[in-house]
Design brief:
With 85 residues, the protein is mainly alpha-helical. The chain is built from three helices and two strands.
Amino acid sequence: MFDPTYVDRVCETILRLGGNLIIVESFGLVDESSFLSVEKRGITLAQHHVTPVGLNVYAWPAGVPYSYRLNPRLFHFTWRALIEY
């Protein structure tokens, strides 16, 4: 988590340079307060491919293979729950 003042300055710099997107690190969680600061500035947040719609793959249930091919219903349920959150 970053200091909101720092995040605000980064956002200001991005906007002054004509940017409109931040792709967060591979482990950005949707409940981080810094994300709210970015959204207030109107900058789009994108996730790395390993964290679709905020799914924390490092908290995946033990004993359940992290495989869409093997568990498509579980992935659909999880993604839907995160989107509605």
